[in-house]
Sequence to fold (302 residues):
Amino acid sequence: MPELPEVETVRRGLEPVMVGRTIRRVDVRRPDLRWPLPAGLADSLAGREVFALRRRAKYLLIDLSDHHTMVSHLGMSGSWRIESATERPSDPVGASAHYYARGKLDAHDHLVLHLGGADGFVGSVVYNDPRRFGFVLLEETSRVEQLPGLSVLGVEPTAADLSAGYLAEMLGPRRTPLKSALLDQRVIAGLGNIYVCEALWRARLSPRRNASTLKPLANGKPSERVRRLVAAIAAVIEEAIEAGGSSLRDHIRSDGTMGYFQHRFDVYDREGKPCRRPRCGGVVRRLVQSGRSTFYCPVCQR
DNA sequence: AGAATTACCTGGCAGC
DNA sequence: TGCTGCCAGGTAATTC
Fold:
């Protein structure tokens, strides 16, 4: 489920319920996630106030009092949901309502943060993760960027951070398929299988093309192809965030509603269907690259 | 050293 | 219906 747009959607959903509130109590129901939850996590978190929710690539960063940050990664199947809120917070960022009163826990609800506020708010946020590839860490705020996984990350895939010059320089030395290079978090941080497929389709570039063919031109400037690719990446990520992410097998928004970007996929999971590009006439094909499914149109993606 | 493969886990679905 | 095999948004360890 969760690539950058999905994690950003989670961040926006949790922000109004968590910021300014205090973690009153923590229930650890199952500590053996991708990495075991830190010993004493419940006691460490209890009593801390939530100052801010940030995101870096696919990592959710929850800044707490006393200079500590809770780091949450959703893996393949993780989600946070909001339960039992006593009041409806205002909604400054446009994320939808913040209530999801499922009311009971299931076997995959591994961590429960009970929140309280001076305003009388009482509620909880619940981490659910069937496959348990996700994890939660607690680290000093000033050291978060040095954590393994975070320290190696490339730039965010947004128009503000990702330039054609940077991408051309990064891809130039790589002897690997373009698809694989774009999945590498050291190049661009936050792209996953779906949005790489979608961005390559929009840029009309084949996932099989060697990454080094996008190296800078002889005059040092980025080629037209790289500029197309950068624009496609930034656009697809921005549109997906705007749509609340993609909801595939399970839903991911903290309030229980679904993102709807999955309805806008041009190639992902569309094997055998006609290419959506006008007058292309191609048929979407599926192939496997570095163990992951790639979907692309062999006619218009070159 | 860099790139490809494997491991980690559970659930859903297609096919029989 | 129930079994088997395959597939799934992620990262990191291992192998080549």
